[in-house]
Amino acid sequence: MRKIGQIFRFLIPVIALVALVVFMTGFGRRKSYKLVYHQAFPPGYISAGDVYWMDEVERQTEGRVTFTRIFGGTLGDLGAQPLNLQGGVFDVGQISYVYSPGLYPLGTVCILPFVATDVDKWMLATHELLEHPAIVAEYEALNQKALFSWCLEPMELMSYVEVYSIDDLRGLKIRGHGGSAWVMEAAGLTVVAVPWDEFAVAAERRVVDAGSFPVPLVGRDAGLHQIFPYYITDLPFYNFHFATAINFDTWNKLPADIQEVMLEVAAEMTEYNSQCLYAELEKGLQDLLDAGVVTLHWPPEELEKFREIALEKVWPGWVAEREAEGLPAQEILEHYQALVEKY
């Protein structure tokens, strides 16, 4: 009996230790997080930064966070992204101020024409703008937390005819979008609203004579370099915006150490996305050259004329509209300009 008692005294702590290990292992499993990422486009350079961010988050959290990655707009197009993210249809995804200006009215400061004409300055300033309390509130009102921001190449022009001045554009039917439409309308040009998915057909049928869009990459991928013979560069109306955000309810369920990893990786994304963009731009420019597209350089003095129109009409108009909505637009514009100057 004494030997049996000794065996039990030995087994009890062993059993307790095994139970503790099993409990802790189970506890650890309960603390893993499976998140759904949705991308409105097929895999490519538009999602390259997001893929890198997810890979790094998975690696640095040692698999505590994993992402189910859905591409191609299965859960909605770019215009549907904000509300689907808000409603928790997915946990992480890209949004764009260009496609949803009414949902991010103050965020659209970064798509005003000619505020920031340098891509890298634009990316750095727009990413830091996400920290401004009014911008944070804009996302939180949509049940979102912004993680990082980036842009495509500048919105420039392609045309059926050679153009070197604002006067050369008069009489042409020009597809405009966002900040480019705003400033061209203010200059008295004929701006035609054509949805992106209808643009190539409209261009081919000469419904429009020219169009503003991100030329070497987005335009190439849409086949527009096979339609328009001229690419007008050095005319950076504005940069097409993207931001990657997470559902705020999902964010609040994550422990602080995982949130910290996500934000640390997000801080690397401006440089990473810039590198990806420039690498892809070289290919895009070569594709235009191979297709026989002729590049025309917009004269600096004509660029200054466009910028003066933006300063005198478009920026004040944007401020007046936002402030009529009770929003601190002038403060945000000045803050954004200061960030651009900072970089």
Let me know the number of strands: 10
Q: What is the CATH superfamily label?
A: Bacterial extracellular solute-binding protein, family 7
Tell me the strand percentage band. 15-25%
Estimate the mean pLDDT confidence.
Answer: 92
Task: Indicate the overall shape.
Answer: globular
**Low-confidence stretches at least 5 residues in length (pLDDT < 50)?**
14-29
Largest sheet: 10 strands, mixed
**How many structural domains?**
1
User: What is the name of the CATH class?
Assistant: Alpha Beta
Structural class: alpha/beta
How far apart are the termini?
A: 81 Å
Tell me the series of helices and strands, N- to C-terminal.
Answer: HEHEHEHHEHEHEHEHEEHHHEHH
CATH topology: D-Maltodextrin-Binding Protein, domain 2
Helix % is: 40-55%
The total count of helices amounts to 14
Second CATH tier, the architecture: 3-Layer(aba) Sandwich
Radius of gyration: 25 Å
